[in-house]
Every structure is written in C-alpha cells, then in structure tokens.
Amino acid sequence: MGMSTRIEAFVPDTDKEYQKHKQVYDVCTKADVSLPKETEEYFKGCDEPEQKLQVELVKGQHYIIYGRDMEEGFEVELSQLPEGVTKIRFINSW
Predict the structure, then answer these.
(1) Which of 15, 26, 35, 60 is least buried, going by the fewest C-beta atoms within 10 A?
(2) CA 74, CA 88: separation in Å to the nearest integer?
(3) Separation between Cα atoms, residue 17 and residue 5, nearest integer Å
(4) pLDDT tens-digit map of 25-76
(5) Cβ atoms within 10 A of the Cβ of 52, count?
C-alpha cells in the first residue's frame, strides 16, 4: 500500500465576500429555496461552502518537491502564496 502527500492552502472564513455569500447560503438552505444567481455562481463547483476557502497551490510557483539522499518532501515558498492565505495543510493519504 502506497502513501501520497498533498498540500492544501486556505483563506480564513472571515473573508467579507465569503461571509456575505455564506449567510445567504445558510438562509436559503434552511428555507429550502434556491440560491440567488450571484451566490450560486460564487459557490459554483463547491460541494460545501467551506471548499470556497481552499486556494489551489501550483507546483513550481508556490511549492516544489524537495528531495535529497533518503529524503523527500515539499518546500513551500511563503512569499509566493496567494494573497489572504493564512493556513497550509499537509495531508498524507493511504
């Protein structure tokens, strides 16, 4: 069984645009009504609203695969992270 590792980056849920659409999402979901077009577009492609907080990192731009004798990992270039990123998560999957 192999293991893979990936990196995920996140902006905080205090982002004003996110908070605005999250409130609309919550009210509409609770009332079981359709989302307004603007909010629907904002969350497009997200199964859950929290996915909108995730920021895609690009290999070679934001990080590289680090390796030397008997070592391998990630090296994240903090100065190149997208604006607003406050959290980086390293995930191992089996």
Answers:
(1) 60
(2) 12
(3) 31
(4) 999 999 999 999 999 999 999 999 999 999 999 999 999 999 999 888 999 9
(5) 21
